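In response to the reviewer comment on reproducibility (Comment 2.3), we provide here a single inverse folding case reported in full, input and output, so that an independent group could reproduce the run without further information from us. The structure tokens appear first.
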């Protein structure tokens, strides 16, 4: 398992098996809520699996970023009309525009606190008062309570060098200096495997 998920084919297969597409559709329709001609930025887009849902009802302008060159090469070929960047996104990442919607799913739990703050600085530099910021990640505390957490962690995170799981309170502690957290939602069993997600809908404190 160590490196297999670094390959787009196996990553996508695994995502299909756990039912992650169902969650990405829900995340899009109920939280990201794309609208006609909106400028969207996704942090940690991997192979771009959410794009079919984002573009299902509206014309969108999408930019995705991921550290993995393999994922970005795959996404660029499959979704050629959109823009992809391959870099470790942080405060030094400078783009020429602001976005209407900035979102990420499962990214903060791969970044230590300092890197998370750097990601927040990127968001700050590329948003305005109306930008919708959607942060979705594992709700660690409750996932532990489910009891199969160790199994999930072994399978899903075996290919990651670092994982920084956080509780709701730990997320909020990091986020509160940057964001107005307008709504927090916990989703039980978003996948076919026992799991719990937390979604923050925010705007930037300017
Ligand atoms: C758990 S995956 C989720 C991928 C995708 N959002 C999805 O839901 O299918 C997290 C992704 O974030 C990327 N990532 C983590 N930290 C990053 C950073 N600082 N800059 C860019 N990409 C990052 C990883 O390479 C990985 O592909």
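Designed residues, in position order:
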């Amino acid at each position: 398992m160590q490196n297999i998920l670094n390959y787009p084919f196996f990553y996508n297969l695994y995502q299909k098996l756990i039912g992650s597409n169902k969650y990405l559709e829900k995340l899009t329709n109920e939280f990201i809520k794309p609208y006609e001609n909106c400028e969207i930025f996704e942090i940690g887009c991997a192979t771009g699996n959410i794009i079919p849902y984002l573009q299902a009802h509206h014309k969108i302008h999408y930019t995705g970023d991921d550290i993995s060159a393999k994922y970005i090469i795959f996404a660029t070929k499959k979704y050629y009309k959109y823009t992809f960047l391959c870099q470790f996104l942080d405060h030094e990442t400078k783009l020429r525009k602001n976005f209407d919607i900035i979102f990420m799913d499962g990214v903060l739990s791969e970044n230590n606190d300092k890197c998370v703050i750097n990601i927040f600085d990127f968001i700050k530099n590329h948003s305005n008062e109306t930008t919708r910021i959607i942060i979705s990640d594992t709700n660690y505390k409750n996932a532990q309570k489910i009891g199969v957490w160790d199994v999930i962690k072994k399978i899903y995170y075996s290919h990651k060098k670092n994982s920084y799981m956080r509780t709701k309170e730990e997320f909020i502690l990091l986020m509160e200096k940057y964001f107005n957290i307008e709504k927090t939602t916990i989703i039980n069993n978003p996948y076919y495997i026992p799991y719990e997600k937390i979604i923050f809908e925010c705007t930037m404190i300017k």
